[in-house]
Amino acid sequence: MSQSDDRQDVTRETEEQFRILVQGVTDYAIFMLSPAGVVTSWNVGAERIKGYRQSEIIGEHFSRFYTDEDKAAGAPAQILAIAAREGRAEREGWRVRKGGSRFWAHVVVDAIRDEAGALVGFAKVTRDITERKEAAAALEKANAALFQAQKMEAIGRLTGGVAHDFNNLLAVLSNGLEVLALQARTPLDKKMIDGMRRAIDRGASLTQQLLSFARQQPLQAQVHDLNGLIREFTPMLSRAGNRNTHVELGLHATHAFASVDAARFEAALLNLVVNAVDAMPTGGAVTITTDTVQSETEVTPALPAGHYVRISVADTGSGMSEDVLAQAFEPFFTTKQPGKGTGLGLSQVYGFIAQSGGDVHLSSEVGKGTTVDLYLPVAEPPAAVGLPSTARHETVLLVEDEPDVLGVASELLMNIGYEVVPASSASEAALILEERADIDVVFTDISMAHGMSGLELAQLVRSHYPAIRVVLTSGYSPAPLHDEKSELRDLIFVQKPYRLADLAKALRA
After folding, report:
1. Does the pLDDT of residue 76 top 90, yes or no?
2. Nearest Cα to Cα of residue 402 among 446, 351, 455
3. Given 177, 238, 389, 465, which residue has the most CB atoms within 10 angstroms?
C-alpha cells in the first residue's frame, strides 16, 4: 500500500471518529446546512432538543425552527448572511420544537468553505438554555423586589421623621390656640381662632397620611370579619362612582377574619375605588373580591409563608405602564392632573396594610386595567375584653423635650385646672419622681432626642411607682402599645396634635 493510501485511510478513520463524536453529543444540537439553509446532517442532540428525527428533517429548510415573528422579520436569512460575510454569527432567542413549544436557544453558525474559499455550507450548533434564562429572570425579579422594598423603607423612614417634626410644630400651634380660645372675648376673636383651627386640622390630616405611609400611624386594631366590613361600607363605595361605573362584590363564602383598624381599612378601600373610577373615564366596573390564601412558600417578596386574607380591587380602566407601576406607592407621585390628587392615596394604603402585618401587590396592563391585592394575616374570631378602671388625677408630671411644646402644653394643662411639673427629658422626670411624692399622672412624649425614651420612662413608672398613671403622646403609636404580650398595652395614648377635649378625656378617663 502506498503512503498516499495510508494518509487517505487515516483521514477516513479520523472523519469517522469525528462523525461518531458529533453524533454522540446529546447536550448540543449539531447539524450542517447547505449554502441555502437546507439541513444536510442531524445529530442525536438535535433530535433531543428540537424533537425531529433525522428522517423527518434532512432536506428541510432550517427556518422551521424559528418563531413566526422572527421568520416575518427575516431572521433566518440574516444569520446566514452574517455568518457568510464574517465567518461566524452568534445569537440568542426563542426557537420552536417539533410540537410547537418554545425554548430559549443559544445559537452559533459557522461558515464552511473549501480550499478555494468557496462557501459549501454552514455548521450550526444550538443549545437549550431555557433554565439559565429563567434563573436569571428570577434573580433579576428578586433583586428588583429587594431594591423596591429597601427604597420604600428608606422613603418611609424619611417621611416618618419629617411628619413627626411637623406634628410637634402643629402641637405648639394647636395648644396655643386652645389657651387663646379660653381667653377669647369677641366674635371676631373666636372666628379667627376657628379659622386657624381648621388650618391646623388640614395640616394634621396631611401628617397622618404621611405617617400612614411610614407605618407610624396609630391604629385602633381589632379583629373584624372583613366581608362584613365591606358589605356595610358598600353603599359609601358605590357613591364614589358615577353613572357609568358601578361596584361589584365577589366575597368569599366563609368569614374572613383579620386584625385591622376598621376606619383605616374602609378609608383604604375608598382610596382604591376612587382610583379605579378615575382610571375609567368612559365607565366600567370596579370588582371587590375576597378569598383566603394559605401558602407554604412566600406569598409576596415581603410576606413569608402563612395564612392570609386577600382583598382584591380590580378595574377595567386605562392601566399603568411599568414605569408608573414602579413608582405607584411613592408619596406625592401621581399621574392625575394638577389639583386632581395628592399622590398619597396608594402610599397611604401601602403604609396601612404593611403596618397591619400585610402587604400590597399591584398588577396592571395598559389598556386592560389594574388589580390591587391586599394581603392581611388571618386572625382568630374576636373575644370580649374588659376595660381597665380609671380615676381622676390632679398633679401632672409633663415630659417633653421640645421647649415650645413643653411651654404651651403646660399652659394648656394649668388652664384646665391641673398642677403641672415640667420636665425636659425622661431622665429629668425620673429624678423628679424620686424627689416628689405628689405626682398623680405622668404625661410624656414617646420620642426623645437623647437618653431615655418615653416608653422606657413608662416602664420605670410601672415597675417603681405603680400608683402613678401614665399617659403617652406622639404623632405615631409604637408597636408595644398594641402587642398583647407587652406590659404597656393598656396605657392611655393621645395623638399629636391633640385638642383640649382629647387631653382632658385622657387625664380624667
Report:
1. yes
2. 446
3. 177
Boundary-marking domain end, from 213, 241, 268: 213
Residue 385 inside a domain? The answer is no
Q: Based on the number of CB atoms within 10 Å of its own CB, is 137 exposed (0-12), middle (13-18) or buried (19 or more)?
A: exposed
pLDDT surpasses 70 at 507: yes
Within-domain flag for 342: yes
pLDDT value at position 166?
66
The domain total for the chain is 4
- CATH number of the domain enclosing 428: 3.40.50.2300
Query: What DSSP character marks residue 479?
Result: G
> How many C-beta neighbours within 10 Å does residue 375 have?
23
Q: pTM for the whole thing?
A: 0.41
Residues 353 and 135: their CA atoms lie apart, in Å, by 31
Burial class (CB in 10 A: 0-12, 13-18, 19+), 97: middle
pLDDT at 414 over 80: yes
Task: Give me the CATH number covering residue 333.
Answer: 3.30.565.10
**Contact assessment for residue 3 and residue 18, using Cβ atoms and an 8 Å cutoff:** no
Residue 343 belongs to what domain range?
222-377
